[in-house]
UniProtKB/TrEMBL annotation:
Residues 411-428 have a biased composition (Polar residues). Residues 640-649 have a biased composition (Gly residues). Residues 411-462, 633-668 are annotated as: Disordered. Residues 650-668 have a biased composition (Low complexity). This is Uncharacterized protein. It comes from the Bacteria.
Amino acid sequence: MTTEAKIGIGIVHCQSTPGSTDIGFTPVYKSDYGKWSSIIDDTGAVFRHVKIDYETILRMIHFSKDGEGWYMCSMKPIPGRDEEYRASWVYFPSSLDLSQKDIKTIIEVAESQIKEKEFDTNKLQEVILSYQKINEDSPRYNIPATQNGYAFRDTSGAFNLYDLYGCMYQKEFVQYEWVILMDKTALTLKGNSVIDISEKKIVESHIIKPQPIDFGFVPYCGNGVFSSPIRIMDGEYLPVEFRKDGYLPISKNIKSQNDYVISLNECKKYFKKTQFVAIDAQTNKRISSAIIKPCNAKEGTNRAYWIFSELDLENAKINVMAEGYTANSYIIDLREKTLNDELSFTMEPEAHEYVFVLPLNSSVVKDCNTAEITIRSQYVIKDSPFEGYRCSGTPREGGIPNRLSIIQQNQTVSSSKNNGGHRSNNGGYEQRTAGGYRYAEPVNKHHKPDYDSEEHNDDTEPKNPIWGYVKKAGIAIVAVGLLCVIGYFVYDEFIKDEPYIEVGTGNSGNNGYEKPDELSNNWDTAFGYLKEHTNQICKNDMECFDDLKGLYDIVNGYRFKDYIKFIDSHRHRDDILSIDEWKRLYDKSIEIDSNKKGVYNNETVEQSITFETYFKKDFSKLENIDDNQNVNQNAQQGAQGHGQQGGHTNGQQGNQNNQQNNLQDNNV
């Protein structure tokens, strides 16, 4: 606890300035100037809501927002002087061990001084020094983040003021800034601005103590580590979150000390999917197409993580498969693995062996009709491996012959008078059948087409061979002319006036220059920019690259959820995350798991981000944004604007819209 365990007393006086309507507030006395004294203020505003006579003392209580104590403010109006009063303040630290009688005595001593024209300093000091006993547990009060307005509790009912001194910590009391504790006959309420809580049930309270937790988890309550006891009301609960690096947080609502425990089943460890990699056993290279899936793990909500139960870590079963490799299941121990470890699995290439039977030309090989060819591959062969041939069925392994036959395309086959075979003009080959298999046989090179033969079935072809040559020559001339026209059009429209820009300078030239569109679509150049600019990035530079469009606005707008989506859907994801700064931002985005409100740089001229200062930002203080629909639309408009006339203006407008909306999207 930060507050010293001692009572604080203050006397204040509020009076009118002679001849003026102004009210002056003056602290008359403070027993010390501890942290508690900062709450003493002009509480005269309460008289706008209630009315009492000059002989009555109005009492109000207030619980400090840090949960370390409560105040009793006693106010007595000054006769004949409207809006003037004297008030005593008494601060009771939650860590002090005080009885009902002790509290009553201290308040009465303080109130006695506001009835006198001169107060006794010694008497006030004596009562403070009389009570110094520290509560063994030194608990704090569990106070809500927001307290609102005034409330009233009648002390003439079942619980009088003395009774309440023994159970001052009540749910309704901590919900309001001030709670008036008085006999209802002693005051008049003005209007409905004061809430009457007289009928609310008075309950007891108990203490929740922090204790050592198994499995290395650390308890958090509110914004800090739960390190000191907290008093809660019966029936209420204390929200506690148990945290451990590499594990999902465990949230519990603690109603009693018995709830302050976690079990092994509640411990969930998570790993990034990118940590799991498959390696080729022969080349030692990563297999990017591998599918890796644990048997007893669940995906995180953003699909970037695998979540394991603590009970499954020692013998985690991982299934790995990839085309061309032998699928396998691996058993690994993940208990000591962290988010920085690579989890690799070695895969052996598959061994497939096929025998294919090809037909032979019997005029060349007279003593054999077929030949066998064996193909060994790590990939499954599903069709004929030879172009121009078809397989008799789906190829099978294990020394089984797979028959092949040549594919006939757009050919007219008719009966032939030669050797009982089939002839067709198909690239100088004849189709023949030998031993039940088709094969290709060259046609006699000296053979000339006989246009008068019965074999010629094209009725549209003139039987005069000279006319055929003339027709072919005419077609060739037309084709050449058409190509000339197309060539001139391409030159005139796309080449003649196309400027070339020197990379990095904007000057025209020839050697060593690239077109802007070639530059923007070149990932190697974009990746080179990211690697060279690890300290500072500029929006105008990044928007030149298609693969980086919109990324600056996402980072500048603290849209961490959108950044995760951008990276995970990027075709060069691994390249980007190989750069420390972008990897660090990715891990930070996973940790934050939300889009935030605000921008890093709202300048329109020098739009840049310096990573060193960017990461110093306390992102937890930024407000979360719930809906990112408008942001995504604006980001797309901004990115598209760079590729159109006036695109730079559109891109800036999209960025401005992002800064105005800064909406969120989706944690482990």
